[in-house]
Amino acid sequence: AGQAAAMAADLQAALGCLSRVPQPTVAAITGYCLGAGLELALGADHRIVGDNVKLGLPQIKAGLIPLSGIRRLSLLIGASRAKDLVYTGRFVGAEEAEKLGLVDEVVAPDDVLTAARAWAAQFVTAAPRALAAAKAVFESGPHGHATAVTEWSALFDTDDARTGTRTFAAEGPNAATFTGR
């Protein structure tokens, strides 16, 4: 049991790696994305799938449970829907996954990578510290009010915040050039 707990902790940390990246992350998925693969994708901020996709957390059929998928899935699609997917271990196609809120965009399989790159490209010129702060608040869960105060306060005295607010007031949105300082 001790060895299994240590292995579970390592695996859980690995599955949550996308959530710890300070920039917005996107999972581009075609074909089958099951078990730990879906758990990894759940850590991304945005999921774009091909219309041929099959998603699922079938661990229950092997007498196990998802390590990080239950919490993330519950936050994403609600506890009742998450319970259905975890307890049954069933797979869902692209249309149902989008309806559930499990994925953000469905495209043709050949267009998944292009769509993922287009989504990510929006953030190339964004304020990196502000993006990281927003992501930290989202990761702190539904009761992250204290994290929001801390992150906002830390941003208040940055070059990016001064430049961004001054430029926004004078020229409108999307005019600032951010440096990450």
How is this structure best described in words?
- This protein folds into two domains: 2-121, 2-enoyl-CoA Hydratase, Chain A, domain 1 (Alpha-Beta Complex), CATH 3.90.226.10; 128-171, no CATH class.
- Helices cover 54% and strands 12% of the residues.
- The protein has ten helices and six strands; from the N terminus they run ααββαββααβαβαααα.
- It has helices at 2-15, 17-20, 36-42, 69-77, 79-88, 94-100, 112-121, 128-139, 145-156, 159-171, and strands spanning 26-29, 32-34, 46-50, 54-56, 91-93, 105-107.
- The strands form two sheets. It has a three-stranded parallel sheet with strand order 1-3-6, with helices on both faces.
- The protein starts with a helix and ends in a 10-residue tail after the last helix.
- The mean pLDDT is 93.
Radius of gyration: 19 Å
Count of runs of 4 or more consecutive helical residues: 10
**Would you count the extended β strands for me?**
6
Q: What is the percent of helical residues?
A: 40-55%
Number of separate structural domains = 2
Based on the coordinates given, report the CATH architecture of the largest domain.
Alpha-Beta Complex
Sheet with most strands: 3 strands, parallel
Mean pLDDT across residues? 93
Distance between the termini: 46 Å
